[in-house]
Amino acid sequence: MLLLSFIVFTILNPRFATPNTIGIILQQVAVIAALAIGQTLVILTAGIDLSVGAIAILSSLVMASLAANNGVPGVLALLIGIGCGVLAGFINGTLVTRLNLPPFIVTLGTLSIFTALALLYSGGQEIGRRQLPPILNWAGTRIQLGPFRITTGVIVVAVLAAVMAFILSQTKWGRHVYAVGNDPEAARLVGIRVDRVLLSVYTVAGLIYGITAWVQIGRAGTASANSIVDANLDSITAVVIGGTSLFGGRGAIIGTILGALIVGVFRTGLSLAGVDDQWRVLLTGVLVIVAVSIDQWIRKVKA
Amino acid sequence: MSTPPTSELSAEEQGTVGLGAPVILADPKNTVLSGRGLVKTFGKVVGLDGVNIDLFPGEILSVIGDNGAGKSTLIKALTGALVPDAGEVYLDGQQVHFRTPQDARGSGIETVYQTLAVAPALDISANMFLGRERRRSGALGSVFRMLDKKGMKEDAGKSMANLGIATVQNMGQAVETLSGGQRQAVAVARAATFATKFVVLDEPTAALGVKETGQVLNLIQQIKAKGLPVILISHNMPNVFEVSDRIHIARLGGSAGVITPKSHTPTEAVAIMTGATTLQKG
Asked: What interface predicted TM-score (ipTM) does this complex get?
């Protein structure tokens, strides 16, 4: 799928398959891909997280504001900001496991709560590059990797993806995440503490959103309550296109990263081919439906 | 049957004549598991009314009874899923107090549930070791927490082979690609591998077809051949009579007695179960 769209767009516009464009796509995709890693964790447990963007915005505003307005040292501000993400994820997890509410409802509520908190805290103000200490802008540092011009943020996300992929496929915790998503009753019967696994998943997802906030500040150069507003649906789109089942228990990080790349390639390709913005949105919608249909069809044929 | 037997019944009273073979309450020192005077009430509903039960080494003991007779409550009270209000449970002659199923598991009691308690998307080996994953040796295991996937696959294959399950070869196969019987075989193999005291099978064939049921019954006999006693809870009389050494009949929260496939016919068992006939005291 990724290869196919890549080839099509290269035919449409020869400028597409240049290291330059690829570098730009990677930079654009990084933030959504990172959020989608956290989203993958949650969706693997048959949940959904609508508060991804809100948590990332809250974290980014906290870290930026602490550093810019309260004179907190950069590193400390960064850690506190990421800590906010962890805490927000922990709150989601606690609500899901203690109140036994569906994740959709919990995160729909916390989406509003965290967004409002971010606005209340920042007073709606944007914090620009000049006000930020170097550490918070670090993820926007441009580096040359072979022919590709990327940012350190891309590397951060790549490392994050590799670490999470390893944890999910190679560790006990990862296996329990799949088991809990696949059949919570079976998991409980073999002695897995389902609530604990769920709580840890939402908390780790919060950690990932917190780290993403850092990458986002680096990419945008600012921290703003209006950034990454489409992040919720974009992250879910990436996960779904990447072949992770919304019913839980099936999927992988590598799929999510490919899913995010497909969306990125698609969008950049369409705009390089001179397609209107509205049509781009429309075609992305078509892409989701087509990609998932093909995926299901392939599964049926294989089985 | 008028009054259910209570824990106060002496060995003699518990014994039977007429239809029944004599049953004497054993000294818990000679049993793998003994329940004595187990009582469990749910509000005004009496789930267990002073039930006695014994499981001897190397035997297959079936527990039969009508719906609501207290089969499941009895088993749950023995395996920690329920804590009895009164009565004692002895494991190898030692009194035990299981508070959770994990306690019982920790003591070497494994249960296979009626619902196929396997995660369909995970492979056979992952299901076999679910909740008991092994890590790799050395730094890969202790620092990076890597699972010993290869070792677990090999051991899963060995356990399946030990029980004569030859139809499944690839331990990396997802459980959802298996038939219902093969899935249950995975669950039974898991129980047989990790149990050290005995295995409880709760309606293991309820969801299966005739041929698959036969495979599972065969597995039960394999477990017995390994020397592990088995408690089988079932509705299915032909199955029960095919594999059991002794049959405990639960009725109205109590016990209507213990029979053997030799002493009674399935029809008589059903009659005792439903209260049409009583194992007479004397």
From this structure: 0.79
Residue A302 resides in a domain:
no
pLDDT in tens, A23-58: 888 988 999 999 999 999 999 999 999 999 999 999
How far, rounded to the nearest angstrom, does the alpha carbon of residue B58 sit from its chain's CA centroid?
A: 13
Decide if A71 is inside a domain. Answer: yes
**What are the sequence ranges of the domains in chain B?**
11-108+195-274
pLDDT for B15: 39
Distance from CA of B211 to the nearest CA of A (A): 23
Structural domain containing residue A99: 30-231+245-250
Give the Å distances, CA to CA, from B81 to A37, A88, A124, A191, B52. 37, 35, 54, 12, 18
The one-letter amino acid code at A171 reads: T
Chain B residue at shortest CA distance from A247 = B121
Interface touch A170/B145, C-beta < 8 Å:
yes
Question: How many domains does chain A contain in total?
Answer: 1
pLDDT tens-digit series, residues B167-195? 777 888 888 888 888 888 888 889 988 99
d(CA A24, CA A9): 15
At A6, the pLDDT band (50, 70, 90 cuts) reads low
Q: CATH topology for B11-108+195-274? A: Rossmann fold (3.40.50)
CB–CB of B147 and A171 under 8 A?
A: yes
Nearest residue on chain B to A303, alpha-carbon basis = B177
CA distance, residue B84 to nearest chain A CA (Å)? 20
Search chain A and give the residue with CA nearest B142: A171
Contacts of B237 (CB under 8 A, 6+ apart): B64, B266, B269, B270
Tally C-beta pairs within 8 A across A and B: 64
* Residues of chain B scoring pLDDT < 70: 1-24, 116, 280-282
Among candidates B101, B122, B144 on the partner chain, residue whose Cβ is nearest the Cβ of A179: B122
Which CATH number does the domain housing residue A102 bear?
A: 1.10.3470.10
